[in-house]
Amino acid sequence: MKGQEWYQESDVAESYEDKRFSGGGRFIDRREKEAVLDALGPIEDKRILEVACGTGRFTVMLADRGADIVGMDISEAMLEQGRRKARSAGVDESLSFIQGDAGRLPFPDDHFDAVLAMRFFHLAPDPEGFIAEMRRVATEQVFFDTFKRYSARSTYNWALPMGSRLYSEREAKELVVGAGLELAGADHDFVLPYGFYRAIPGWVARPFRTADTAIRGTGLGERIATVSYWDARVPE
């Protein structure tokens, strides 16, 4: 998938967060972090692996809240941005960043309490293999997000600088079950796709996000949302 090559470019890593999480993109960042924290629950001293951690948005946030966390990514350029962020936040001694392949996680079975992957499965060439590896190293929980196939996301997907995989709800649930996991919860959000929010300033995005959130609270909002968050658990 061409997105893998695009993702590892050094200039992409340097501008990644400014392009995605400034202006209207701040609403995306806020919501994604909320979804992660809600799903993981109490995290102090919890052993967590973040697969495809990128620039460490979630890795650093979770370390700051007391998690024992490892961030892994295939892009050394992205990891360097994460290390800088960790130093700036004063948590560089509380976490580890390593370069690695999500298809062959360099950890023994049942090594982490929880494993998460955000902004990853839309680039995954082998989603079944990747989630199986996440399940292998997790003792309790696997958390990930997907972009929805039958939504406004599909209308601009062709314009992205990367290949992007979209999932129906059935396909995402099959990933969970196929990995030997049980679905504990799912949340769906952003009727207006991420690209819309990233393209406009924050003051313009605010009323749209207010309306978007109101729609989300209805049955219609869940059906036409562009993003899904999946909380899967390892069976006891």
UniProtKB/TrEMBL annotation:
The keyword Transcription does not apply. SUPFAM superfamilies: S-adenosyl-L-methionine-dependent methyltransferases. Residues 49-138 form the Methyltransferase type domain. Keywords: Methyltransferase, Transferase. The keyword Methyltransferase applies. One of its GO terms (molecular function) is methyltransferase activity. GO terms for biological process: methylation. Pfam families: Methyltransf_11. InterPro entries: Methyltransf_11, SAM-dependent_MTases_sf. Signal peptide: none annotated. It comes from the Archaea. Gene3D superfamilies: Vaccinia Virus protein VP39 (3.40.50.150). Its EC number is 2.1.1.-. This is Probable S-adenosylmethionine-dependent methyltransferase. The lineage of its organism: Archaea, Methanobacteriati, Methanobacteriota, Stenosarchaea group, Halobacteria.
